[in-house]
Protein: 5,6-dimethylbenzimidazole synthase
Organism: Camelimonas fluminis
Amino acid sequence: MTDEPARSGFAGAPPDATTGTRDATSLRAPAGPFSQADRDALWRAIMGRRDVRNEFTARPVPDDVLARILTAAHCAPSVGLSQPWNFVVVRDEAKRREVHELFSHANAEAAGMFDGQRQALYRSLKLEGILTAPLGVCVTCDRTRGGRVVLGRTHQPDVDLYSVACAIQNLWLAARAEGLGVGWVSIFDTEELKPLLGVPEHIVIMAWLCIGYVDELFTSPELEARRWARRLPLEDLVFDGVWGEPAGDLAPALRAAAPDQGQAKG
Ligand SMILES: Cc1cc2c(cc1C)N(C[C@H](O)[C@H](O)[C@H](O)COP(=O)(O)O)c1[nH]c(=O)[nH]c(=O)c1N2
């Protein structure tokens, strides 16, 4: 058991009729650590989540499951609570075929940007599941949402984009827990995608997500398994106090917590 409130257990007082505010103290709930079983489950979602290209099955994604992962996305943090996201759900195969054509064109261009053996390896990689996944979700950012001045965005205008990235990560983790795989495709010109989906000019397309059930997943990033790139040692990326100062005392704990040390199971 945990002492966390249930997902839908919002037990707050109603807004005060005169001020429109709530009694903030009544909106708090205990926030101790999760039980070991719950922590294990969270770690399993984090470490077992993968970017999926090949493993999608054709099994349709029921609406209630889709609604849950979209709800997970919608519960993400966002700057000033601006919630700048929208989600265009695309099941239609003909539409996905058009999206796939955009990918194919862009992917051919991308391949040409690498040289020699690297290009050959790039061409051997499968970098999308637009047609094999039964569902595509285009995630967007409305940079006008929240009005001209948004709390928290006054000096860092791009934090609305970061907010949408948080939403995508929430969705990705929730999908893992549901037995769904997600593949993020960014190899196409988003301006060409807009007219296909009727996305207005001022909206930014953040991601095309391929979503479907999976029976198996890679145990480490597929790009690592296919020798394109490697996960960097975390201890090289953590500095102590100032940029460039090695993590020092923290380094052994960082090494011990690394995924390949068996800390987390997929
Ligand atoms: C913003 C962004 C954009 C993309 C990706 C990710 C992110 C965060 N990734 C997936 C990426 O390759 C993958 O996350 C890493 O290789 C790590 O693997 P796991 O996600 O841990 O399986 C990705 N993968 C792919 O095959 N085609 C793509 O176009 C993209 N684009």
